[in-house]
Design a protein that fits this description.
Structural class: mainly alpha
Shape: globular
Strand content: 5-15%
Largest sheet: 3 strands, antiparallel
Number of domains: 2
Number of strands: 5
Order of helices and strands: HHHHHEHEEHHEE
Strand order of the largest sheet: 2-1-3
Distance between the termini: 39 Å
Length: about 250
Amino acid sequence: MDHADYAAAVAELRRRLLAYAATVWSQVELDDAGLERLIELMAPTVLAAQLQVGNLTSVYFAEVAGVQAIPAGGAITTARGVAPEVVYARPVITARTALARGKPVQQALAAGGRRLQNIAGTDLQMAKVRQSQRSLEHSGRQYFRRVPTGAENCAMCLIAATQRYKTKRLMPIHPGCDCNIAPLSPRESVSQVIDQNMLEATHTQVKAFTDLQDRGGRAPDYRKLLVTHEHGEVGPVIGWAGQQFTSKSDL
């Protein structure tokens, strides 16, 4: 399995999971029975998708490194440290809260639907990132790179993709993140900036986002705009400097 085949399989899995979540939410009721039904439908489906993406990731890294694949397991599905019954009740709670604050029904439902999409997508990405780390450690690779997929790319992802990451540290993600991971060979991992051309290519996007200009005529070091915070459940989360992050006390 080369990276293109792996990326296509993961993208299709993500597409199907989020489409299923949208269908489930379109039929949701906001009473207690509806909340229980949402949990009943989503929790096992997401778990199955997490294991599937984990096994796809394991096979990909094993073939790249020429080692035995290691099966996905609970380490990649329980990373939140919060029961799925709690996590997948949150979209209904979000919608109820919006209604309590006087929002129209459609706006409240839309808010809950967005939260369900974010939770399901994040759970899938967390599983992929954690299995990637397990497989990288198993293969003996010390460094990896972030690989934007083209589906959810932003300047933040593109800048981060120019840098090497150490295997012992989880790749930080963000809401909607669908970046993949690829191992770096010893030759590729000599420099911290592994793709200077990509870094330069993000200049226009970052300038549009930040409106930053260097009065001396030099290109600003946009990497300094990126920070990583520890999310209470998700783990390392990448964002722009000054952005607020969620901790366990906020969840």
